[in-house]
Structures
1.
Amino acid sequence: MNKKYWPLIIGAAIAGGIFIGGNLDFNDSSDRLFTSNSKKDKLNRLIDYIDHEYVEDVNTDSIVDVTVNGILHNLDPHSVYIPKDELQRVTENMKGDFVGIGISFYTYKDTITVIRTIEKGPSERAGLKGGDRIITANGDSLFGRDLTDGDLIKRLKGPRDSKVVLEVIRRGEEQALTFEVKREDIPIRSVDAGYMLTETLGYIKINRFAESTYKEFKRELTKLEKKGARALALDLRENPGGFLGIAEQIADEFLEDDKLILFTKNKRGDIEKSFATKRGSFENGHVYVLIDENSASASEIVAGALQDNDKGTIVGRRSYGKGLVQREMQLGDGSAVRLTVSRYYTPTGRSIQRAYEKGNSDYFDDYYARLDSGELLDPEKIEVADSLKFTTPNGKIVYGGGGIIPDVFVPLDERMQNETVAFLRRRGYISNFAFEMLENDRSGFNDLSREAFILNYQVSDDAVEEFQDYLNIKRKTTVVFVTYKEEIKQYLKAALAEQLYGFGAYEEVLNQKDMMVNEVINLSKGSFQD
């Protein structure tokens, strides 16, 4: 939009802020809340004047979006607006599935190339394999087109139970192959891995708390119990949270009947308490919860519930510090708002919400403040307030006011978690190059079992040099990782494992050299000396 319209937009935003700020009172019924009044009429009339009378055409939808964002920006950092063009993606991500054909793909040399089919999904059942190049979908050519990944996904997705005919080129086949694939509900995994670290210690990693998370978690936990797990490493690092109810269900697996999990309080002082039930299957096992500075919200609910009930051991670094609860509300045009409606408190009564009075920029830059202070390397640098000191039933001191402080501190691994490697991972360069390594010699891995690969396979120095050339020539970057070659090898191996073997292989490779995971293994050995 032309910058000359910004004064107009800001004026509408102020009007909208006055209107909505004066009417968001949840003591009112929905009828009372949305009935007409002079303030609402004023805002509606202004929008109508701009629509019909203003000298030039103006996109009033964008004015409304700016108004809503401006209002929420001044409330708290976690009240957010979700535009209608993003709501479906957000909903699918938190629902835990979407309708599709069940592949992960990479646009390789202008062609959709299958990285891996989803296990037991429609594409796997139809016969597609990693490395297949999809050149048409229902006769519509996808080869050589200047399409974004979003465009390609739209062409492959469709209504549930509808069919798509794919024409595929496969290395070693002289002619194109044809597959008919039925679109189905495809799970979006929120549990990344579940396997045994030792004979008695299981490991489960959760990446978010979606609708499907508890079922995924319970399935993996049951498998590990059958394999002899008496202790569990529950990895919640980098987990931004999700549904509060799902966090309660997972905490319930470890807590005895009637133990308080958390309580919430809204602005009217109404308190709702959540208690554990008898259904937990791991109440007698020891749990180690792995957290870091990006473990937030529902992750902190689980960690706080266990810590305050003297259950298990919290391992890692101080968590994010989000103690606010949001509720999603539809706005009537396909968009929605997630509005903070209450605060939650751990069983001892502490709020772990960080202060946000200095504004959102300062709030979201907290990681860099922690890095600069030295807190991520030295637990003595963690700032605590005596006024926010609480005591667990067994006499352990815990603190509120800014995240969960772990029982056992593990510093940031500055080599595996450095900014250069993080940049390469975020941009997808490591996984994309791993795919090209497979394309050059996919058959060389055919007889290599998952276990043999994880235990014995080594990425060569030549492959690392080729990766450097790939970055400089194909991706036209100036990134140099001379001092991080061993770390690059480990991430390349993990990416290869994920593309070859699927579920959990990536984490299993990285965990071989993970400081926090190794700390948990050592702690668990001490627990079972008897």
Note: The radius of gyration is 26 Å.
2.
Amino acid sequence: MQPDSALVYYQKLAAIYKNEAPKQYYFTEAKIAEQLINLRKYTQAKRLLDQQLRASVHLFNPEVEARLLQSLAKLAYAQKHYKVGFRLCEKAEKAYQSVEAITLDKIDLHVLKADFVSRLAYFDQSLSLIDTCMATLQTHRPESVRVAYLRVKLYAIQSFIELGGKLAFDKSLETCYKSLKLLKRLPTTKQNLYWQSRFIYRQGLIYKNQQKFSLAYQYYRVALQLNKQVFGNTHQEVASSLLQIGRLYAMHAAKKYSLGRQRAITDKPIKYPELDSAFVYYRQSLKLYKKKNTCFKEQIGRIYSNLAYLYTHIRKYEQAEEYFQHSYEILSKVYGKTHPEMVPLYNYWGALVCVLKKYSQQLEILHKGLLSNAKNFNNKDIFVAPPVKDYYHPGYFHAFCTSKAMAFANRSGDLKDLKASLYHFEVADSLIKHCRNRVFRKQSHLFTASLINQANIGIQGKSAVYTCSQLYRQTKKAKYLEKAFYFIERGNSSFLMQALAEAEAKKISDIPRKLLDKERSLRKQIVYYEHKQGQNKQDSLVRLNMDYETLIAQLEKEYPRYAQLKLDVKQVTIQQLQQSMPAQTATLMYTFGVQSNNYVFVITKNTAQLVLLPKAANIQAAISHYYNQLSSEKRLRNFAPASYQGYKALFKPAEKYLKGIRKLVVIAPSLENIPFEAMITQLPKSLQQDDFSKLNYLGKHYQISYHYSATLWYKAINQVVEQTVAPELHFLAFAPFSVGKGAVFNTIRGANDYLPESGLEVKSIYNVFKSKNLSAEVSLAKAATKDYFIQKVKTAHIVHIASHSEANTQHVGLAKIHFAEFNHQNQNFSGCLLASEVYNLELNADLLVLSSCESGVGKLIEGEGVFSLARSFLYAGARNIVFSLWEIDDYYTRELMVIFYQQFLTHSMSYSRALQIAQQKMVAKGVHPKHWSGIVMIGK
């Protein structure tokens, strides 16, 4: 950690060895070269090593040759010449073949080779080398400090691959945790603290990629303090830490304020607090690097590109262009015009020229980015893209392809550019499919879902759907309409579809029950420890996740049908949808982007239309106002105009294609909290009254249900449910708080009070089932326990929970339903069923009713929709789900639910029709739409 001092002592040692011990002399010369590398004296190190290689030839000692080549490889690594370094490693390995002993130097070479392979983006090969090295280290003394640090190096490579190559964020966090745990068992030296800072920084980087910015700041600052402790306040490692904190602030601002999306160049400069902080850290970093010497040109060049990107965000475009040019001049001299280290510059620069509407220049810059990020691709034609697997970093590959696709669509609108746009969107989509098949953890799947969403929102102007619509308009070829449908559906809950496909694959792949029980048990334990507090939480999670992944690998190997089916997520086509679509039914698929990229795809039995909607800002303003007026129970004079505006923004453009339609299936994951039922098609003659019964609601004309995707709805309507015997229970209901005295407007099902109407609700429904000679069971008050629910739920055809529930918009797994054991005052949450626990249930319910508050509310994930209790029950096996969008009143909910059940049990109608009638009966009584439209349905 003090290379200048080490250099002096090694030089003295070399002088002693020179005439007495030639082998040790050359080993020491290699050490001298490595200190020169640490001091960034690359030319001097290269000269020394080349000289010693020539001088050592007369020894005919392969170990000396290998050791000198190994140091040359380390020099190549420091200079980021990874291909050269890999070839030097292979030469050193060849020389080591004559050395029988498995020395730590030889293992160190294999570690270095694994690092080179990872940097060359051959991730699976690198992981294989890591496993081999770890196994070899087991044969050496475990208490050896050098052995421990070799393991630490291997963990560093592994976490790099998991983070950047595999997009396995949670797994990378676990690898960092294991390494930090190992480091804390070693003596507290500067070297130890340095490695701790590296892994703590990497943890921060992972949290940054997961957009958990508070955690990222925390870890970045700890890493900065450790670097100051080790190196002092002016070292280049401190400068690097300051630069990374600046980047974190910049990314936080970009996410928080939707920066990076195309804007008019006439916009006035604007200030954002996080960007101000980014400027401060960048300038501090720049000042430290400039104080050093000319060795840090590339770091200075990178800071210039980061500063230029900030100037782009605050709309100071001249300064941005100037800094990008400075950055390019510096970095291209160091690396050349196409090198992996040039990739971030081209990525940032492309955003500026997009804002300036210089689309041809943008395409040239982005294509240079693709060339720099590719291992073998060297075609300079901007109309082509590299093969899907040819990249150093998958995230940049996707960014360049999608940005090029938007640039082509922005540039001219002629047929050639539009076809090139679609081609690049398809290449980016193929990359996501390739990556998704290799990621495992939930967070990684959600990250790829957000990448899918970028094609649909069109962050730099034009979306994939826009491109397809323009190609269809110019050519009238139906394949482009089908492509538009494909991209919209791609952005609809792809993670949920993947998860359901895997769950189904387990059921139909002949996996023994014993292994399935083990898999479910491990999932339950993982959920338990995810929410547990205490010292052993992380150790247990790491162990359980390793066990779980080992088991899944075993299932994939021993049951290849499972491995195939879990990845077989085939999207429905327009033709398939129409063939299965019931008469008088239409699906409305919504997609929202920026600027004018907003569409609704209207599909009926015989027609398919892609309809343009108003601009994003207009739609957002309309639906937000509508939701606020509705959910806060505003008077008619406020509610009616807001409702009508929502109707005009979302529904009116599609209405002319819905003649003869009686049932609507709305597919819009980002609109899950917006009930279409309470939109009105015209304003009343007078707003100075409060008669809500006279309003012309959409729910009066259409049965309305919702779903996460067209594919899932298609599978639902074609699903053949095997019921060789009658269900044990036709109806199973729970009302844990069904005592006390009720009153209208007095109790809501999201508070912690008693819910007397919930008891009347389930008993009334129970009586309807019994009158039809159908088996039914109701658990009230203290009998309505969580354990009994879990025990009985898989035996019931219809499940009904009338209770309190709580949404969680930050930690989706912590949304909960209260059962009898719950006690809010002493914080006993053991009586709560968490959303994360619901995923581990096995349901066979045709209908599940969550008669509780906010059961459809949760965290909105880009490209996935809302993670809520309702969604978790769909995954667990419920085929149709009734749930709430906000806090619901105990009295009105009871009234609506009883009517709902009476309708489909007495008149043999569909659930959606029964819910429509129940809502309209509430309308006829003049009940405010808040009390009936907030209860909606997902299903067929």
Note: The longest strand covers residues 585-591.
3.
Amino acid sequence: MTIEYKKDGSGWHRWDLHLHGPGTKLANGYGDASDENLRAYLEILEDSDVQVFGITDYFSFDSYFAVSAEYARLYPEGKKIFIPNCEFRLTETVSSDGRNVHTHVLIDPALASETKLRTLLSDLQTHKTRDGLRLRCSDLTSREEYHQATISLSDLQTALKKVFPDETAYMIVTAAGNDGLRGVDTKSARSKSISDELDKASHAFFGSDKSTGYFLSTNRYEDGSPSEKKPVYSGSDAHAMSDLARLSGDEAGFPPTWIKADLTFRGLRQTLFEPKGRVHIGERPTVLERINQDATRFIAELRVNQIAGYAAANGSWFKNVSIPFNPELTAIIGNKGSGKSAIADILGLLGESRQQEHFSFLTDEARNRKFRQKGYAENFTATVTWASGTERAKKLDEDVDELRPEAVKYLPQNYFENLTNEIEVKAFRKEIEEVVFSHVEESDRMGKSTFSELEDLKTAQSKSDISTLKVRLSELNIEIVELEQQADPSTSARLKEQLKQRCEEYRVLENSKPAAVEKPEEETPEQRAVSEEIERTRALQATITERSTQAVDRLSAIKTDLVSLGSLKESVNALDAHVKQSKEELRPICTRFGLDIDLIVSHKMGTASIDAKAAELAAEVKALEVEHAGEFIEGTDFGALTGVPALRKAHQYLADKLKALQETLSAPQRRYQRYLQTLSEITKKMEEVMGEDDSPKPGTIKDLDARIRYIEEDLQAQLDTRYSDRDGLARSIFNSKEKVRSFYEGLKSSVEEKLATVSSEEFDVSIDASFVPSHEFPGRFLEIVTQTARGPFRGAVEGRRDLERRMTDVSWNDVETILSFAKTIIADVKAEDISKQIKDVKRLYDLLFSLEYFEPRYELRLGGKNLNQLSPGEKGLLLLVFYLHLDKEKTPLIIDQPEDNLDNDSIFTVLARCIRDAKKSRQVILVTHNPNLAVGADAEQILHVTLDKADNYKFTYESGSIENPRINDAIVKILEGSKPAFVQRRLKYQIK
């Protein structure tokens, strides 16, 4: 018999390992093994979907000999496989009614020569006797003898080992149902013990899907010893032509058995090592349904060839290469430089992967360009064929077309290394966010296609609130900085010095008052008239001076008001535009629900009153700035003057007039008038130095005294109030950020459930929605600090280390510890001269209290450590777990050598399990040199590639299943791993 091994490896096929043939020794409903009966029997088998049959007979292989010989005659090109199955009744009983257990021996047809099979039956004695001698199985002749005969399990094992020293040549498969172990008398310790021993001696069991869970458990035995997981097969147990209808898989009580393996006995034995993943009882396996319904997401074949006319001047490389791919897990293996990454890169190129910059074989990076250099890649074309039949072709010097959707998810080795060595893990967290998004229910995505789009939608109000709060915080920090400057002891000392100086000025002015001059008693009428005119003029000048001061103050106030009115009008116009824009943004959704946004939101804004007020003030400004036309003369109405220039001109006119009048006085009158003038001037200056009672001007004695008193009595209370207000704003910002974090929190429940299934004591992985400090914060903070100045952050290295130490003590999910962190920094800086240490105090306050140096992020934890604390290998393991176990994308996942930074224990215990889960929902293509991934994850297909540089860079490959002997040899030759993994692989390789 010629064995055909499929290049695409292990596939799901229908197997029926328990059906009887014509002439079967007991319960024969077919009739004898005549040519007619055999032909009718084989026609049904040939037309069925079952590919492998276990032809069964009691204590005999006669049915197998007859059926296999007739099939070879009738169907010389037939593809059906027949395995000899001998059914024995054991001497051992486990049921309360004393029924004997039935067990089957399946023999590798490649080794099942007629001589060996008859020798086995000849060597095997039954409990029956004839003429005082025990009958051998080969001695049984009558129906009654076949019905009564039993053998012991130990005799069966001895005979098998004698005839087939290679134990991989056969399998003992015991019945689990009516005539098997599940009918054990649970009240009998003896029966349970016999059942356990039969279980231990059996390789597998015949039963239904109801028995599968029991035999996959590891705690079946009564004595508490661990039990091996073993496969269960369902068979039709056909005894008549009518029973063959069970081969359809539609007959109740006889569900079909699907086995994922090569159509060989070695393939069947592979189920002993993968009983859960390789055997399925029931409807078509899910992967077959997925291929049928989602064929655009399975790579069926890759073809690579030289272009016409290429004479292999720069190497043969790929010539007529055609590689089929298994729909589940393909492991690409080979020695270093054998072309493993070449296949992955080509698939990535044809699948429009967005990771082209990280390709290693098709790299376009100047310093590492290999195959993409001129004269190479342009001479080769590649074509990928999808299971749907559609194809995509490119020359290997072409680039990824980013206008096309990404048809594969490719993790090149370089990308993997960059991601896991990334200091701040920004890209890593983005990958996590997108995986989390893939678990969000479609109805909860609100029409958004990415995590960031949904985040923007759901957190827009919170982020707007934070922005508004930051504006208020900035304004408050301006006040605080000003108040702190006032509270600085140097400020009080400086004011006191200014007050002292002003008091001295006041004293000097007081002392500079002229000695009193009596008013002359005797005056001529003319002199008296001049004196009276001088007094009237001086009084008028004083009035003009007062009015001029008031006019200047009013003019200044109006101009300030006009600026404010201008800002008000701009704000109103901006508000109007914002409302209109917001209404238009809301209009589509209102229209969708049949609502009128104009009825929901109505607004009326007008700036006419602002314009009127501005015009009124502008007119007043004009009046206050008016000049006086002409010259002042006697009889000018000074009371009608309003403009500042006119009042100043009038003041000068009166000053000149006073001077002229004084020139006409007598010497006594002149002295008296000079005295009055000087006294008036000094008194005016003293008033200016002293200041007014109600609102003294800055720099006056009363102003300075009030400021000093304010600093000493009231300032600290105001500062404390501002500090409290700032804390309140920071808490409000935190609360708004908490709302953003709650968005993250709300999306992770399904991810947590999935992580729980892969988490273990050795691999304790969890996900949390946490506030995470920005990696940029130390740099932003230290930009504000003069690190050469004396203080807590002095020194570039020491200062950063001190800040990072402080950050490690912060609980970023607790606003009070964050505020304590900020306040402690400020207090420690203030212990020295803050002005020498901090370049911009307000900027420092804005940074610390705006809380913009941490953001909500998904924090993946491994063994209690967060991402920033993990080694590249640990981060790599988490990334792979996410893609393999959590990513809900259905496109093929291609991973190039992820294991380089991972230890074997992690690979064997975690990744292999995750890969097994991943291939249930998507095609996985894995480039690896680690057996724990290739074999530990039970790859359906092994693709062994070679690139013979000595033979002009000729690329070749072999492909097939693990159970394929040639592939088996390649795996053993190329791959190696930890001892536990090697022991498991040794069993899978079926090496003695």
Note: The CA atoms of residues 382 and 890 lie 23 Å apart.
